[in-house]
Specification:
Elements lengths: L1 E6 L19 E2 L2 E2 H10 L5 E6 L4 H10 L5 E5 L7 H6 L9 E5 L2 E3 L1 H7 L4 E5 L12 E5 L2 E6 L7 E9 L3 H11 L5 H8 L3 E3 L5 E3 L3 H14 L8 H18 L5 H18 L4 H13 L3 H8 L5 H26 L4 H28 L3 H4 L10 H14 L2 H28 L2
Parallel strand pairs: 1-4, 1-6, 4-5, 8-12
Antiparallel strand pairs: 2-3, 6-11, 7-13, 8-11, 9-10, 9-11
């Protein structure tokens, strides 16, 4: 199956960014707009892309595609972009052999939008328009499951034109007839005349990028959509994520996910090394590293750079940091009583086992334990909660209480996890 991407526009509202540079190659959340289309569509049934471009930008596109040889692409040049995006669409007619996807090079979609839209037919319409400016968006009026009218100034409409279509080649005959009648033809005219089908997909993130403000807003919304909340504890949900998403929106264009992992791990290890000289400063730095711990995953998902290695590296280094900080506290207290040493050992063991049980569940069953057993989200003892508790205890001077509470809470959580998993598997 092929996909046509219209990328011949002049991008005048994004100047000076697009003065001598194509808008679809501008980055949103660390990735070019065009890369997002290629990556997300290629995860579905799309095997070949037809990209309609402005000839003056050809060198930029060829350089971009040379960096991403895994995508099979044909560049079609539109020497007359002033004739409208309908003309750009028509120029791709000889490059499709069956049903095809059509999308706009200056739109951005989240992964779930593309996945669901690929199973629909005709124009994909969003009834809610949750993430767009209704005044600027193109409206769609559909009747009997077909497009009747498209335009920004419609007083009565069914929903918003998402710029995502699944079409049949027959629509090109309508485009050809209109182009015989006049020089400039907009895509909306073709779709109206052809009365293509329309399908609804509401609530998923999408937007078109027309201004510098849109670039920044799209980045923030993609970062927000990248938050994976299923495993977040109470502190992450109410504090850490607010900080990490704010930071990620600024860092996503400059920092790779693995670099973010190394940065937060370095802060955690630095905190452990500071315990001897200033326990309170160390505790604050440890909490800061925990608050920033989510940026690697947020950047990875928002910039389409997720990898098994990245997730593994983050998990391993988190355990290393936690062990180092607890070890620093243990050496600072220097317990001599066998009972105190036993409690400290249980605290070490339980803290590591909380994460280990979750990771091993995913490794064994291929699913997230918090999605499979939602009750576990409510049990205390997750990493973000432990780090915050440690900070509060250090700041208040209750160092030994850290080990007592961790020994009890973490091991109790591990025991309950074993019981809940065993019960779920027994029920099939």
């Amino acid at each position: 199956m092929e996909a046509i991407i219209l990328a011949a526009g002049l991008g005048t509202r994004l100047r000076p960014l697009t003065e001598n540079f194509p808008k679809p190659l501008l980055k949103v959340a660390g990735r070019e707009l065009l890369y997002r289309h290629l990556h997300l569509l290629s995860e579905g049934p799309i095997e070949h892309f037809i990209i309609v471009i402005n000839p003056q930008h050809e060198a930029f596109y060829r350089e971009f595609l040379a960096k991403h040889p895994r995508f099979s692409c044909t560049l079609v040049k539109n020497p007359h972009p002033e004739r409208g995006n309908g003309y750009s669409f028509f120029l791709a007619r000889d490059h499709v052999s069956g049903p095809f996807v059509l999308t706009m090079g200056d739109h951005v979609y989240e992964k779930d939008f593309v996945r669901e839209a690929l199973g629909l037919n005709g124009l994909v319409v969003d009834r809610e328009g949750r993430f767009i400016d209704p005044q600027e968006a193109t409206k769609a009026l559909c009747q009997g499951g077909r497009v009747v009218s498209l335009g920004k100034d419609l007083s009565s409409y069914t929903g918003f034109d998402t710029g995502f279509f699944i079409l049949e080649p027959g629509v090109f005959s309508t485009a050809e007839k209109l182009l015989r009648e006049k020089q400039k033809v907009n895509l909306s005219e073709i779709m109206e005349k052809a009365q293509i089908p329309c399908s609804e997909l509401s609530g998923r993130f999408w937007m078109d990028v027309d201004t510098p403000q849109d670039l920044r807003r799209a980045t923030k919304l993609l970062i927000k959509a990248a938050v994976k909340e299923s495993g977040d504890g109470f502190i992450s949900r109410h504090l850490n994520r607010k900080v990490s998403t704010w930071c990620s929106s600024f860092l996503v264009d400059y920092l790779s996910p693995n670099a973010a992992t190394l940065l937060t791990s370095f802060l955690g290890l630095l905190a452990a090394s500071l315990l001897y000289w200033s326990p309170k400063a160390a505790a604050l730095l440890y909490q800061l590293s925990s608050m920033l711990d989510g940026i690697d995953g947020e950047i990875a998902r928002a910039s389409l750079r997720e990898s098994p290695f990245g997730g593994w590296l983050d998990s391993v280094l988190d355990r290393f940091v936690d062990f180092a900080f607890l070890l620093g506290l243990y050496l600072l207290l220097n317990p001599v009583s066998p009972w105190q040493q036993a409690v400290a050992l249980l605290a070490f063991f339980g803290s590591l086992m909380v994460s280990y049980t979750a990771e091993r569940f995913k490794g064994a069953f291929g699913r997230d334990i918090y999605s499979e057993i939602p009750l576990l989200r409510k049990l205390p003892g997750k990493r973000d909660e432990r780090v915050f508790f440690i900070m509060v205890c250090v700041l208040s001077g209750h160092l030994w209480e850290i080990f007592w509470v961790l020994a009890l809470v973490t091991n109790l959580r591990v025991l309950l996890t074993l019981i809940l998993v065993a019960r779920k598997k027994a029920r099939g």
